[in-house]
Input
Amino acid sequence: MSRDTAALDPSRQFHHWWNNERFRGILYQVLLLAAVVGVGWFLVSNTLTNLNARHIATGFVFLDHEAGFGISEHLIDYVPSDSYLRAFAVGLINTVEIAVLGIVLTTLLGIVMGVLRLSSNWLVARLAAAYVEAMRNVPVLLLLLFCYSGITVSLPLARNAYSLFDCIYLSNRGLKLPAPVWDASTQAVTAALVAALVLATLVSAFARRQLDRTGRSLPVARITLGLVLGLPLAVFLAGGAHLSFDVPHLAGFNFAGGVTVSPEFAALLLGLVAYTGAFVAEIVRSGILAVSYGQTEAALALGLTRMQVLRLVVLPQSLRVIIPPLTSQYLNLIKNSPLAVAIGFPDLVSVANTAINQTGQAVEGVTIIMTIYLGLSLLISVLMNWYNRRVALRGGR
Amino acid sequence: MPNDDAVISLKDVNKWYGSFHALRDISLDVRKGERVVVAGPSGSGKSTMIRCINRLEEHQSGTITVNGTEVSNDVKAVEKVRRDVGMVFQQFNLFPHLTVLENLTLAPVWVKHMPKAEARDIAMRYLERVRIHEQANKYPGQLSGGQQQRVAIARSLCMRPSIMLFDEPTSALDPEMIKEVLDVMVELAEEGMTMVCVTHEMGFARTVADTVVFMADGQIVEKNTPAELFGNPREERTKQFLSQIIRH
Output
């Protein structure tokens, strides 16, 4: 059929209403909305029906009830007769503890490994590369189990513990350290230490201003050291040189007293840091490579040492490349921390699991977990975005 | 020939990049206060040669001595040489995360342990000399190419070097900015600074240089005063190169 006859064909002039672009656009949106509402309605009604059938009351009232289970590690006081709310708080604090320590250690390990992988020393560079490849290509769960069994299998039983000065013990029950007893004397010494730190900060700020104005620098490091050591020591001596420690001692199959770094805690921290550190090392490496080599050459030509070039010229510029992916690694570390369940460290998810099993309040429990992880992640993102804006280059290039 | 008042002395220097022979038996003495211009086609080893002087490149045989210090594997010797030798790059290489003033004070404070206030005074003095002091608190990215290159010269001068190396300092600049950079370099030459300058600016070579070194294929082909080398080149390779650049 030629083009002329096609144009004249009356059936081509007639437009079907279902072929109208606007109509189709609206139709698709209505269908999508109906599907979302339908699935939502199904989930909610199904949940409510099931909860009714099992006679489970919804709501967060259970948080006031007695938890009735023990938690092996708690930074705040906790006994089984405390409420579920307090149990969740203990779990949250454990999660935050792992997250904070993990992020700090991961950053340090990642920077060191990333820099070493670029070393001109063949052996050092290859060792760093081997570390990165080994850690990146092993599932983190496997790594945690490996660390945990490594610690518990290789260390001796409590009664054969390695000991240092008869007050520090290392066994498969963890690392036991003496803890200062929280009496008037310890409180005074701690207060003195805090005061010394505040004073040292003020002195260093004053010294910086003095340096800018007059060009004369104060021996800040020595003053700080003197303050931090001297002030608590003076208070300690003035208080009659009395400090009491709670020294761990063998009692039955385990130690009593002191503070403990448990094998679960150590394995979780070690596994997460080793795993995430490998990713951070790659991020740091890419950040350093993103800074043109001309920067290094110019700094070297001025007489700066290799360390100074890295610290003053290259790393500050790599930060703008490093920070955004580093943020997602921090989030990954936090989101991997619930694998603690596998090795028995009582983090938030582990505590919530127990609470859900006991109460059947799965919806509420999962809501709490999700809200807290969302909150932690958003907090990290906000902080890192703020930092990213601070290190951004000004004036374009 | 060994020269006792040479501040830079290269003797039979050879360098290879893999199998590529980049420098062949380079021997060159630079006296105190001498202005040397190095010219030649691209890939002839000009930049490689001056980058060997402050060890941004390693040479594999021969000796390089700067102010009596041999440039070698010895880290301390290299640091000493670098403190004494300033360098200006084609791509400026200012530190984009620091202000102009911070670019200038970084090395004096960290390498010479100079008090910040003093370093800042010296920096401002050199910024005035390169006529750019009103930009002291801007970032390099906010300056034009010519301004950036003048800041880079001032940054080197803040270390009070006795020798300045220039590696094609005007090659990345727009034509109208070349003059402002050359003017600063001419002033520096008039003050008696020892300079080794890789450049294609033959006008600059004619007016400022004491010696012009012509390089091709990793070798020094000819070395003479600018008047002799430009007016009466002895080697065929030199004539060929000069006819090329004069034609354009």
Notes: Strands of chain A lie at 162-164, 168-171, 174-177, 179-180, 245-246, 249-251, 254-256, 259-261. Chain A has a mean pLDDT of 84.
